[in-house]
Amino acid sequence: MMWCGYGWGWGLNWLWILLVLLGAALLVFVIVQLVTRGARAGTDAARPESVGAPSARQILEERYARGEIDTEEFTERRRRLDEA
Predict the structure, then answer these.
(1) Tell me, what DSSP letter sits at residue 4?
(2) What is the 3-class SS of the chain, one letter each residue?
(3) pTM
(4) Would you say 49 and 58 are in contact if contact means Cβ atoms under 8 Å apart?
(5) Residue range 17-51, pLDDT digits in tens
(6) DSSP H or E stretch at residue 79
(7) Of 12, 58, 77, 82, which one's alpha carbon is 20 to 30 angstroms from that of 38?
């Protein structure tokens, strides 16, 4: 009987134990990465420039370049942004 004691059954148990431990370690690693990524994403959301969102000045300049606002309005709004 090879399955009852010293055959294939017990000979490869170390491999199964190793695979289970590696799987558990991988699961812990993935969970930690997801949690820390979520925490980092929350702090980055508070700073729009860090996620590639245009600044108020860039939006103002783009609107002026497209002709949506005239020079007087552009100058006034830029002055307000510079004061803030």
Answers:
(1) T
(2) CCCCCCCHHHHCHHHHHHHHHHHHHHHHHHHHHHHHHHHHHHHHHCCHHHHCCCCHHHHHHHHHHHCCCCHHHHHHHHHHHHHC
(3) 0.39
(4) no
(5) 899 999 999 999 999 999 888 766 655 555 555 56
(6) helix 71-83
(7) 58
